[in-house]
Automatic annotation (TrEMBL):
Pfam families: Globin (PF00042)
Taxonomic lineage: Eukaryota, Metazoa, Spiralia, Gnathifera, Rotifera
Family as reported in the entry's similarity comment: Belongs to the globin family.
Keywords: Heme, Iron, Metal-binding, Oxygen transport, Transport
Taxonomy, superkingdom: Eukaryota
InterPro entries linked: Globin, Globin-like_sf, Globin/Proto
Protein name (Swiss-Prot/TrEMBL): Globin domain-containing protein
Chain coiled-coil ranges: none
Domain Globin: 1-60
One of the record's GO molecular function terms: oxygen binding
Signal peptide: none
Length: 65
């Protein structure tokens, strides 16, 4: 939550998370190549989505205070 709270100073918006998530997956796919399996992709998506939920909450809390 604090990480999202801190990102407001860079004018991060909730819609940026979808863009970053896509770039993260592309970067992982390029780096891992054959090791980037559907299982690895799903694990990273689950991780990123979990982190995003808390970061978005932190952004929202700061925007509302």
């Amino acid at each position: 939550i604090q990480l999202g709270f801190n990102h407001r100073k860079w004018n991060v918006k909730e819609e940026h998370f979808e863009i970053i998530g896509g770039v993260l997956l592309e970067t992982l796919q390029d780096s891992l190549q054959d090791q980037f399996t559907p299982k690895v992709e799903q694990a990273w998506l689950k991780f990123f989505n979990s982190v995003s939920i808390y970061m978005k909450f932190g952004l929202t809390q700061l925007n509302n205070s």
